[in-house]
Every structure is written in C-alpha cells, then in structure tokens.
Amino acid sequence: MEPISAALVGREEERARLEAFVKSATGQALVLRGEAGVGKSALLDHAAALAAQEGRVVLRAAGVEAESALPYAGLHQFLHPLLAATARPEGDASRAEFDAAFGGAPGRPPSAMALGIAVLRLLTRSHARRPPLLVLDDGQWMDDASADVCGFVGRRLAGGPVKLLVAVRTDTASRWDTAALPELPVRPLSEEDAARLLDRRHPELDRRLRRLVLAQAQGNPLALLELPVQPTGRPGGLPDEDSAGPHGVPLSRRLQRMFDTRIASLDERVRAELLAGALDGAGTPGRADAVPGTRYVMRDADAAVAAGLLDIAPATGELVFRHPLVRSAVVQTATADQRRTAHLALARLHRGDLERRAAHLAAATAGPDEAVAGILEAAAASATRRGGALTAVTWLSRAAELSESPDDRSRRLAEAAFVAGHAARPGHAHRLARSGLAPGAAQPPGAVLAAAYQALYQDGDVRSTRAQVSAAIEGLRDAGGPAATRTETEEVLHRLVVLLLAISQYSGDRAVWESTRSLLASTGGPATDRARLYGDTWSDVNRHGAGRAEQLRRAAARLPEMEPWDAARLGVAAYHLDLLDTCRPHLQRVVDHEVETGAVAAGMVMLHLIMLDQTAVGEWDGAERTGQRVLDLAVGHGHHLFAAQSRAYLAHLAALRGRTDRARDLCAQVDAWARPRGLGFLTQLTESAAATAALGAGDHEAAYHHLAAITRPGAFRPYAYQAPRTLLDLVEAARHSGRAEQARAHALAARDAGLPDVSPRQALITYGALAMTARDEPEAAAMFARAQAHPDAARFPFELARIRLAHGIRLCHAQGRDEARHQLNRAEAEFERLGAAGWTERTRAALRATGAPLRASTARAASLTWQERRIADLAASGLTNKEIGRRMHLSPRTVSSHLYRAFPKLGITTRAALRDALTRGEALSRA
C-alpha cells in the first residue's frame, strides 16, 4: 500500500504539524493560509487520509463564491448528511434550531452561539465512537453566517474529540481573518522541492523549458503542474525567459489565462455545462448535500476532464472542478447572454428554494420585471429573518432596479435604506434613500429617515433631526391615495414616529416631549398601539406608564415573530417598566446573531438592555463584560451615541462597585460629549452615576447636589427619566445631609404619584423610601415589610440590601441591637456578593456598632496576586504611588492600576482602610 505522504513532495514541516493535529486526542482547530494554487487542498487531502486511517469520520465542505451571499449555505454542506441520517431524539431542540437556520421551519434562526452549541452537540451525538474531522476548503468563500458559527465551534473544541481544519486564500478577506484560531501558513515549495515535483510529473521537459517553468512557477505547485501542458503555440505556453520572474501579471491570473484557453477549445454544449455548474456551486469536492433537484450536477463533460478542467470525485463519481481558478475562468470567459441563460435555467431548478431562486433571477433579468422584483423582495425579507441583513439590502436594491413603476422603485429603495441603517451602514442607507433624485429635489420621507438615523446615532444630533423628522411626519399624516399607497405611507409614517420618539428620549427635554406627544396624537390611525406604548414608556413612565405592563407582556409573547429592531424597541419599553425579565431570554438568543451578521444597531441596543438587566439583578461581572463589548462595537461602527451611552452605563456600574475614579473619568467623557449636544438622557445618567459614587464613598452632600440637578426634592421633573429611578438615592442623600424634611417630602411624592403601580422596582424603592423616612416605628415596620415582601424584591438585590441596611440601623436605635443584626448581616452578605465595596464597609461599621462579630469575609487578602499584595502593603505603610513605583520599578500609573484591582478584593474603597483589611485577612488565614 502506498504511504499517505507519497502524493506530496516536500512539506515536511506542514506534514508533521498536520500529523500531530490529527493524532492528538483532544479537539482543536487549525487554519491553513496561503495563495491560490500553493497546495492547501493537497494538504487537506493528506490530513483527511490520515484522519480516516486513525478511524475518524471525515466531513468535507467547500466555500463557493456563488453561495457566499446565502446565509448558512456553507454550514448546510457540513451538516446535511448528519441531519438526514440522525434521528431526532424526543424533546431535542437542536433540530428545530437547524430547521430555522436552513429555512426548513418558520422562526428566527438562533444566535451563532446557540447554533454553534447545537452543532457541537450534533457532532458528538452522531459520531460518539468515531470522532469527526471537519475539513473546509476555500473557506474565504463560505458565507458569513456559516463562518461565524464554524469559528465559534472551532474556538470551543478543546476538551472534546471533534477537529476542524480550514483552508483560506491570503488574497481574499474573510471572517476567518478574525476568527482567532491557530494558523499554519502554507508557503511555496523550496527550489529543491519544486524541481522534484516538476521532474516527477513532467520528466520529458528539456533543460531550457524546465528552467523556465521553475522560474515562472515560483514554487507554486499548481503552476508547476499546469504550465508545461498549456496548449498554445509556444512550448509549454510560457513567455520568453527574459520575462520570467515575479514581476508583471500575478501568477494566479496567468494560471487563469491558461484555463481560459482550455475552456475556449471545448464545444459550446460542454462550456454551457461547466457554466451552469460554476454558477450554482456544483462540482465542489466533498460536497455532501447532493439531494436530487437541489443543485446542479454536471454531466457529459468528458472533454473537460481530458482538458484538465474537471476531475472525477472517487467517492461519488461526480464531476468536480479541478481548482477554484477553473470555476472563475469558466464564468469570466462566458458572455453576458450566456450567463443570463444559465442563471435562468438554474432559477427554474431552484423554484422551491426562495433565496436561491431569487439570486439566480436577479442575475438573469436584464430589464424591469415586476414579478422578479417581487420575488427578490420576498427573499430579502427571508434573509433579514435569517440574519442576512446586508444580503437583504443587496436584493432590495436589485428589486428596486427591476421595478416597473417609480412608486415601487422608491418604496424598495426606502426599505433597503431602512435595513441598511439598522445594519450599521447609515451612510449607505442615506445614499440608497436619495438614489434617483434630481439635484436640488426635496428629500423623500425615506431619505429623511436615513439621514436622521445617521445624524442621531453617529453624531448625537437631536436638534436638527427632530425638526426634519417632525416636518416629514406632518407631511405624511394626511396622505391619501390608493389603499396600497396608504398602507406604504403608514409604514413609513410609523418608522418616522418611532424615530422621533427615540430622538425625544435622548433629548430628555420636557418641551421636546410635549411637542412629540402632541404630534403623535395628531397622526390618528397610522400611529399604532405599539408606537403609543413606546411613547408612554420612553417619555415619562411616571406619568404615562401605569397600566402598560400588561400590554407589554402580551407583546413580548410575540417576540420571536418580530423583526430585530421591533424586538429591541419593545425591550427598551420593558426596561422603563422594569420588566426586562420578560424580554431578556429572547434578546440573549438573538443578539449574537444580529451583531455578527444582521441588524447591528438593534443588536447593540439589545446588548445595552442585557447589561442593564445584569446590573439590576446583581450579575455585575457579566454586566461589565457586556458593557465593554457593546462599547467596542459602537466605537468600531462609528455609533458615537451608543459609545457614550455604553460609557455612562459602565460609569454607573463602576460607581456601584466603589471604583470612584473610573466612574468619574467615564462621567467626564460622557458629559463633555453629551451636554453641548443637548442629550439630557445621557447627562442625567452621568449625574446619577456621580451621585452613586458619592453615596458609596459616604459623601452625601455631593450626592445631593448631583441628584438635585435631575429633579428637586418633593417632585419628579416631567420627562426626566432618571427622576423616579433615583428616588432612593435622593431620599438617602437628603436624610444624611441634614435635609430630613426634603427626604420625607420626596418619599411621599413618590407614593402620591403612584410609582408603586408603575413597575416592581418603583414599588420596592417607594416602600423603602417611606420606611426610611417614617415618622414612627409602626409605619417604618409596615413599609419595610411591604418592601421586603414584594414578589419581585429579590430581582433587585442592591436596592433590597440598601433598604435592609437603613432599616437595620433604625432598628438598632429603636428596638435594640439583636433586632438589627439580622437585617444588617443579610445586607452585608449581599453587598459583598455583589462587590459593592463602599456599601460593604458601611454595613460592617453598622454591625460593629451593634457589637456583632464580623463574619469571615470571602474577599480575603489571600485573593491578591503577589504584586497586588506587595503594593497594598507598601501603600498601607504610607508610601505614595510614586514612592512605591520607584521601589518596585513600576510607573505610578501601574501602581494605581494594581491598587484599583486590589480594593474590591479587600472590600474597601480608600487607602486608609488598607491596613485593617490586610490585618483582618491575615487573622482569617491563621484561623
């Protein structure tokens, strides 16, 4: 039997790496990267043969340029044989996820993470005894959605038996460039190995021609095999020796020209067969989804085999393209009419597959055709639901080109612009919306919508955008015309109304909101119930939100049916009603899917909502990771408004954790950007975060002044969204700064305004504020009992711990120490679990006042790294950061960073508390 390595010449380093890769007992991924023709496919074949010899199942797929716009087409290649052969276990949800992704069932596809987990589960279950090796050739052509899922799988193979091997070209950008997987560069053969390969395959060459081939091939194996057999008038089809070398026409193009010549020598029927196969992705090595009628299968092309353009796959007997350059050459040598004819035939073949049929019809149609435009529009809607927002924009734009009437063209361009805006392509959206307009012509409503999206989210412009959007709404609200036109007008009007609500929310200004609500009321029928829900919750939930919770719960039951932007908007309403638990599971399922391949802007809103809920329920580490992720996304996409919003939320989280310097730095960044733009929503967030930081540090006077900038005590400033949310903060700051009457007035104002009826969190903090400011003990006990007994109290652990702390201190003075300790112990345990360092320290001080022994802290000095402990010791001895830096050869900034990380581990917020914390940690360690 011939050794597996006999087919390869040289490649000792690559073969050793692949052998170690295949024989390793643990799962892993590897990406082969090199130029066209350099031998990546041969190395994949080598690895596949090794894996089969080791008893592995080999699953192969190949990226196809013709399918690169079809979401999940590449993943379907890998999984089709498994899905067809594997029975679906009772209660297994994975198959439903695959059906949604591949279009076999209605519903939104799962996120890349959920689908990746399902893929891992399927691979493990299907091949429990024979672990699989997944082999992907031409990975640069795999569609983005599939590449994201495969990349997710590849990063999580450690600890299991599954392996993934991918080959990609260096000259084509792809998702694999940022997949963070180990790579093996595939370089040209050495001069010696190139000569050995040439002599093995073409021993008949004379010395001059041999030298010319070696010079032209530059170590590229495909060139070494093909250049000597190019059928031209010159020996070997090569240029003069003087022109040999690396300069001039790129090698890949010279190779393609060789294939052009061979294609031209075939008769018309065979060329047509090759063209149909190339345009439909047929003839791909390892293609496993060969279901009759689902793709083109090349037949009767023996002449192409003889010409070295096709091979016969040993496993299936199918005709396969010898190299991707052959497929490209086949398409490029065909005339435009030949390509259109082939696409039309392929569209008939795929009449049962909406998206494939649409893709071929788009390429086959030369002039306006309303039927084809309608199919493309339907395919775009399907692609949007499956996470292919950018594909949807392409198809809607093509549908607009094929529209027979100006109205249909404008409508489809507006839809393309709308989707592009939500896919974080606002500039593209604006260009689409203005397509075809005469110079100086007034902007249509779709163009106003696109321009306002760009101005709001990229520049934070709430002033001019409000004027433009309001004018567009006024121009549309009384539009008449045919029923179909009225329906389209109402859709555009609804989108403008929702955008105006978002602009008004970010402005945080009473006059703006009153104007918006008046305009919304005047739109009558076209303003949907959903828009009114948004208006009532986004504007002033204190005044308009009561009674909206049930409507929101009913709407949330239909979340899987909604477009991503509608799901995100409903989530914002849920946040203002403190009901994010009704939406968060759905948002977590779809958010990765949207930020990777779909509606990126909606995905960033979803991440903000997830972060807010994580903060509310006490998942602060997760909230910080989510906040940093959305900040990175916002900066990367140029959404400066979302970037500032992310920083504001991170500032609030830092303030909760006692990281005062970080909170203040972030607040300063946000305030400097937001205040000149009139973004009251963000400036209120910075005031709230600054107040939280001051409260944690015990600076109640500073906290009071920050909170008074949001609303005066005893009232809730209209349309100040942070006014009701900071109720507990203002009550506490007023009480501890000598303003007891103001604190009481504010608590009573919350009760009289009906805040407990608005949301569960508002109920909790209202009862807590009333307990804190009660005139007598029976009232205090009754209000505290109502707060603690609220069915949703546990969902807001930080607020509940604060109320317990305040009540415990009151009990200590009114009823004795024993009654107080229970509440203080519960508060201290919760604050420490959350990582609220300042609040933990305050609660411990209250416990010490009761004479209670402190329980062993989970934040021991032993958790510090060696360097953190050394720096903490030096700081506790009284040295400054500069002095510590000189002693440890570190910069003062590095010293500060280490202390910043050490403080929460020790449960403190100031340098003055360092010595006690370190001493306590040593005592606990000895105990």
TrEMBL record:
Keywords: ATP-binding, Nucleotide-binding. Transmembrane segments: none annotated. Residues 227-250 are annotated as: Disordered. The keyword RNA-binding does not apply. CDD domains: LuxR_C_like. PROSITE patterns: HTH_LUXR_1 (PS00622), HTH_LUXR_2 (PS50043). Residues 857-922 form the HTH luxR-type domain. InterPro entries: AAA_16, P-loop_NTPase, Sig_transdc_resp-reg_C-effctor, Tscrpt_reg_LuxR_C, WH-like_DNA-bd_sf. PANTHER family: TESTICULAR SOLUBLE ADENYLYL CYCLASE, TRANSCRIPTIONAL ACTIVATOR DOMAIN. This is AAA family ATPase.
